[in-house]
Amino acid sequence: MSVSPQVRFFNYLHHRYGKKEVIFETMEVLKLQQAAVYKRVNGTTALTTDELMQLASHFNVSLDTALQHENYFSFQHPFQNSKRSLDFFEHFAFIMEPILEKEVIRSEITYLANELPVFYYLHHEYIFRFQLAIWNHLHWTEGKLIIGSDQVIDPKIDDLRKQVVESYRARRVTEIWNPAMLSNLYQQILYAISIRVFADRDFIDKLVKDLENLIHDLQQLPQQSHDPSSSTEDRPNIYINEFGNYMNILLFEGEKLRSTCIGYDMPQFILSHDTRLYDYSKRWVENIKRHSVFITYGGLRDRELFFASVEREFSQFADRVQKLMVLYQM
Length: 330
Fold this sequence. Notes:
The protein is an alpha/beta fold. It has helices at 5-17, 19-30, 34-42, 49-59, 63-67, 85-100, 118-123, 125-139, 155-169, 183-194, 201-226, 275-290, 300-327, and strands spanning 108-112, 172-177, 237-240, 248-253, 258-265, 268-272, 293-294. The chain has 2 domains: 5-67, Orthogonal Bundle (434 Repressor (Amino-terminal Domain)); 85-327, no CATH class. The chain has a 7-stranded mixed beta sheet with strand order 6-5-4-1-2-3-7, with helices on both faces. A hairpin with a 4-residue loop joins strand 4 (248-253) and strand 5 (258-265). The longest helix is centred in the last third of the chain and has 28 residues, at 300-327. The N and C termini lie far apart (75 Å).
């Protein structure tokens, strides 16, 4: 027996939020009595177009996902009305909210990164300051790019950064890294020195030190995972894809929600809660995992070889930074 689109829509809401919550919130949004809501939920009374749009907006669901043919997928994106970095980070936090909510239990994240998961960059202050300046310059700021130690970050952005990092660390996470994960960041920094966008040497020194600390933190992660005394949030499962990745995909699976976030310019994500897209993406990422090197819970030789390469690349980068600063008399 086929199910009407209206009943299918409410079934979708029930799965996402629970039937009791959907009933009472629908009563509030549509200003209806409980009996009238039940008639709409059961399909006895047809929803008007206006009522359907109100509910979709209130519950933050896509009508494409809830009603359309299976070949249709829907995404949320951040930049339609954004005009400054705070607009973006507020939307970034909004996208991450159902994924990173602390109260969500029995949930897990899989992150396939074409560099590193962006949350590692957000955790280190001067790396974040540098990348924020680049993002601002590319998307919002006109005129010359200037990066310095006196650069002021909006306190709201800094709070959002810390909130997102803390929440991500509280989840059970599987990560797939690209072996060339820091190469792009190195090139950005070297280029920034060569075109004289740094206002002072102090910022560069702190940025290089931040990168050194980042690498040290990354080295500790697989060891924490191997330590049975470490807590759940300290135990990411880490893979290295030696062929390299060209996508940033974050998959979240919780009790009531399965979400796919696709990054198209870090840390900009488009987001879908369509379970069919999630299932397809999960299978695709699982296949990539099978062709990747697992460096936690053992894998000592592979882990040592990988980080030896990372340290060599960092040493070469730091040496080039010093030579460029001498050349440009910084």
